[in-house]
Amino acid sequence: MKNFDLPPGRDERGQVPETTPAREAIAAYAAEMAGTDLDLDHTLESAGIEHLLKTGRIRTKPSVRRKKFEAAQGMAHKRYGKAFRKLAE
Hints:
This protein is mainly α and 89 residues long. The chain has two domains: 1-58, no CATH class; 61-89. It has helices at 19-33, 42-55, 64-88.
């Protein structure tokens, strides 16, 4: 396990969320460790998912809030889909 104890980052105004450098460091570490022995342990992941399903701590169907979000997202993609694709290019 790696310790991500990082100093807070700053921009020209001296303000940057402290999570920004941490997220960048974690993403870089994950990319570096991908495919190595330190990558995701599939047995542990399976056991964790099985436990969550047995204890009812994981939803097997979307919540009302999630359904509303997905509906709004679908409408936004219909309305602005071409603009999203242009931005992605």
